[in-house]
What does this fold into?
Amino acid sequence: MNKVDLVLSVNRALWGNVPQTLRSVSCEFSDESTVILKSIFDGKPSNYDKELASLVGTEVLADLPSNYKFEEIIEGSAYPDKLNNLEYLVYLRHEGE
It folds into this structure.
């Protein structure tokens, strides 16, 4: 899997799984066969937020080759705090005026 395939996989996995509280989604390769997916929510993520983020992770995991490892990070960061995204930014909520 390459960068383009990973970003497209995450983008597709987000379809229908973006709550209003989602601030950003990013991903990266931590090594040649490990993918990290990070979802940042506005404030502490609710159980519903976590469930949607896990659905996205499951969709991405299904696209990965069987020898790949997968790590998912779900965290909260209240607006206007700065976002600490991974290398490839896939989704960014419009914030501000």
Summary: The first helix runs from residue 3 to 14. The helical segments are 3-14, 47-63.
